[in-house]
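User: Hi! I'm working on a homework problem where we have to compare a predicted structure to a textbook description. Could you give me the structure for the chain below?
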Amino acid sequence: MTLKQFLKPDWRKIVIFILLFLIMCIFNIPFMLLGPLDVPRRIGFPFPFYMLEFRRGPRYSPAKFSFFSLILDIGLWYFISCFIIWIYDRLKKKS
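Assistant: Happy to help. Predicted structure tokens:
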């Protein structure tokens, strides 16, 4: 199998990618809501692409969004979904 075949999208890879990406974003929500207010809240794993900081007092810190981190996060989870399908297909051929 070439790298092009490995990364070629199909419905299984896309479904697994969407599930992995959403699960990792949803699991960040409880950590965003809990904890001290001075700690920045992050969405995205392993590359946080959205950060929200709460500050007390007159200084307000707006949310920060990193497009580069979002692309890295998407690329990583898509690669992992391709790897999961590759392992599944290899195990299926052995059976």
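For your comparison, note the following. Residues 18-89 form one domain. DSSP finds three helices and three strands in the chain. Good luck with the assignment!
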